[in-house]
Amino acid sequence: MHSNVYEVSATPVPSQRYARAGNLPDWFYEQICSYAENTDPIQRKQAIHELAHFLGPFCRCTGDQLTFGADLKDSFFRKGYVCFRAAAEVLAQTAFSVFNGSEVAPAFDSALTGLNDSYEDRYGVYIYTADTGTLETLDHWLRHADLSQPVYIGGVVDYHR
Predict the structure, then answer these.
(1) CA 34/CA 126 separation, integer angstroms
(2) How far, in Å, CA of 144 to CA of 40, rounded?
(3) Over the range 20-55, which residues count as b (16 or more CB within 10 Å of their CB) and which as e?
(4) DSSP 86-115
(5) Spatial separation of the C-alpha atoms in residues 23 and 81, rounded to whole Å
(6) Beta-strand relationship, 59-62 and 2-9
(7) First to last CA, the chain
(8) How many CB atoms lie within 10 A of CB 121?
(9) How far is it, in rounded angstroms, from Cα 143 to Cα 146?
């Protein structure tokens, strides 16, 4: 299974300054991926279009620039929210003996995993900000980014887990 890490910037990134696989922090290789590869220009262009499509109808891609509509967060997170609520309802019914591990309950483990995954996909798309050296999940980035401003995609790294 593979996904991508996208470098984002408030200004266009010259190709000679694109983030590369070697820029990613050690924890990413230790916890998330087994290896990563830099994309060639054709793969990079395709990956940028795939990201825009993945973000949905409120994301517009023009070359290296992504612009976002006001409803992007609502649209993008709606399905995850439904799953999150369903998992939370199951977890709210958990007996203490399951919570403390005295009783084995696969449904509890599944609901807990579902709750976490619906909030933040740790094995999906990542966003790298070269200016700060920050690497974060797309979910985390979307929740905290100022989407009223366009972003530019620099390097794209293909990673495998």
Answers:
(1) 15
(2) 29
(3) ebebbeeebeeebbeebebbeeeebbebbeebbeeb
(4) HHHHHHHT--HHHHTTSS--HHHHHHHHHH
(5) 32
(6) unpaired
(7) 6
(8) 16
(9) 9
* Beta carbons within 8 Å of 49's beta carbon, 6+ residues apart: 61
What CA–CA distance (Å, rounded) separates 147 from 35? 30
Task: At 100, list the tokens.
Answer: 């403390």
**Predicted confidence (pLDDT) per residue in 57-67, tens digit:** 999 999 999 99
Q: Which domain holds residue 53?
A: 2-160
Task: Quote the number of domains for the chain.
Answer: 1
pLDDT tens-digit series, residues 69-113: 999 999 999 999 999 999 999 999 999 999 999 999 999 999 999
pTM score, whole prediction: 0.92
